[in-house]
Design a protein that fits this description.
Layout (H helix, E strand, L loop, with lengths): L12 E7 L2 E6 L2 E5 L3 H5 L7 E3 L4 E4 L3 E6 L5 E5 L4 E4 L1 H11 L2
Antiparallel strand pairs: 1-2, 1-5, 2-3, 4-5, 6-7, 7-8
Length: 101
């Protein structure tokens, strides 16, 4: 990130989010920008821990506080820190299958 370099363990990342041509990583009590696409980053993450909620965001399932029904058969993922992430209808089905809901 510019002149700074963050060393982050995968299990510390709670959310990844598209921000223009960058991916914003939320970890610990901070965030950083990475000049990569979300698809590039997703390919390197453990699919048993990280879930692509929509085209813009990936969540770490270990940081999910609760999941609620949402518009059009989607789901609203509420992270432990209160951040709300909408799972698209298609991804909501995937999440239900993954969590055996």
């Amino acid at each position: 990130e510019g002149e700074r370099c963050h060393f982050v363990k995968y299990h510390e990342i709670r959310l990844l989010q598209v921000d223009g041509n960058y991916v914003r990583l939320f970890f610990r009590n901070t965030h950083a920008m990475m000049p990569r696409s979300l698809n590039y980053v997703e390919e390197r993450l453990d699919p048993n821990i990280f879930f692509r909620a929509n085209r813009q965001q990936i969540v770490n399932l270990n940081f999910v506080g609760r999941i609620e029904p949402w518009v059009g058969d989607g789901l609203l993922i509420i992270m432990q820190d209160g951040t709300q992430v909408e799972a698209s209808r298609r991804q909501a089905r995937e999440l239900k299958n993954a969590l055996e809901m």
